[in-house]
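Q: Here's a chain of 387 amino acids. Please give me its 3D structure as tokens.
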Amino acid sequence: MTSQGTALRFGYGTNGLADLRLDDALALLADLGYDGVGLTLDHMHLDPLAPDLAARTGRVARRLAALGLDVTVETGARYVLDPRRKHGPSLLDPDPEARARRVDLLLRAVRVAADLGAHAVHCFSGIVPPDDDAATAWERLAAALTPVLEAADAAGVPLAVEPEPGHLLATLADFHHLRGLLGDPPALGLTLDLGHCQCLEPLPPADCVRAAAPWLRHVQIEDMRRGVHDHLPFGEGEMDFPPLLAALAATGYQGLTVVELPRHSHAGPHYAETSLPFLRRAAAAAAATAPAASASGASGASGAGDPFTAAPTAAAQVAATPVSANPAVAAPVTAAPVATNPAVAAPAVAAPAVAAPAVAALVTAAPAAANPVSAVPDTTVPEGSTP
């Protein structure tokens, strides 16, 4: 690893290429120069419920290998289990048999991921049912994930839970709450959607990355605006990408950073073609600022801007969130601690016992309610707006 961290590796999500056959989508991404793919198991892309799943998975594994693409398995298909309810049934469904169907899907995803040599399996919690309280929902989530985590641990594939706006598990604080409920199992990791950090987290996105570093197993990326859960093509939102990518590289994260544009499949090949050059330019701008930031830190500059040293108030953090989407205009990146991601190479390594202050602040903010960030008034996002 260099002083700037690891070189980032970019992928594109097949949920943004839903109008293409899977083989065509994979060939497109390889031809464009992507390092990998976020493979959403769905009826059009490696259907997890159709017969001969193992044989079909084997064919996809051989195709990925031939194209030189790495893979993360994603499970956010809208209607793969229920043709009438988006993302239903969830892990929070009041009906035990319905919950079991979602658990079965995740168990299938773990087997697929193991057969593909995937970096991780992604999942999310679902929204709290209308007649349930948060405490009941957390109990259901923990119980439902237990067999999945056992299977993931046995397969050596991390289960990367995603904080999803509007869901029970919506924030980094919620993720740490789940860790506590489950006893911090080694197979439990984090999917961090960088746009979601812009949307509703109290920390700015780059600080979210640094705080989440020990648990990162999968990363998604797109542009987004504050308080609006709308996955946007790059340059159409408010995010400042060079500092964000610099923070991600400095963590030592070795998995894929996957473009997540599920509502743009109508022009998926176009956005796949334009997204990678944008990200490469932003990554190059991030690398160009890193030596200056390192020199500043080495000369004895104060660590006041470092979230591990002194986390500002939530209001100050929100006010400081960058609104520039132009990667050519980037403030110097404050040097951040390099925390090598242990789970990509060895999923069984436990998270650090002592959390840095920014992480500790998130842990102590573990919720009593489903969406607890009171400093930000727009954290509750309707399920209809999710991808």
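Q: Can you summarize the key feature?
A: The two ends are 35 Å apart (CA to CA).
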